[in-house]
Amino acid sequence: MEPSLLVLSSLAEGDKHGYAMMVDIEAFSGIRLGAGTLYGAITRLEERGWIQGLDSDDRRRPYRLTALGRKHLKEQLSTLDRAAKTGLTRLRRA
Fold it and tell me: How would you classify residue 84: left for phi > 0, otherwise alpha for psi between -120 and 50, otherwise beta?
């Protein structure tokens, strides 16, 4: 699965810093993202305006899903849902 969708899905539950996202993503998907993959996705998501970094007194910077990011995530998950349902239906028929 695309790392960006995993990050957006993690942040849909609430604000998180990078390590918390890594732990959450592995827990809900079974996919372990390396730090380079995670922070590369975070950079792209920030550039697109789908997440925003928050100020922090800690060295760990939390991120938040934006309204635009929530809209994008919903659209992408709906597409994946349709594709998965179609694939599963076709497998049952085969």
Answer: alpha
Domain ranges of the chain: 3-93
Is CATH 3.40.190.150 correct for 3-93?
no
Q: What is the pLDDT of residues 46-91, one digit of tens each?
A: 999 999 999 988 889 999 999 999 999 999 999 999 999 999 999 9
34 token code pair:
């390396």
pLDDT digits (tens, 9 = 90+) for 25-53: 999 999 999 999 999 999 999 999 999 99
Inter-residue contact 61 to 53 (CB < 8 Å): yes
Spatial CA neighbour of 53 closest among 40, 64, 38: 64
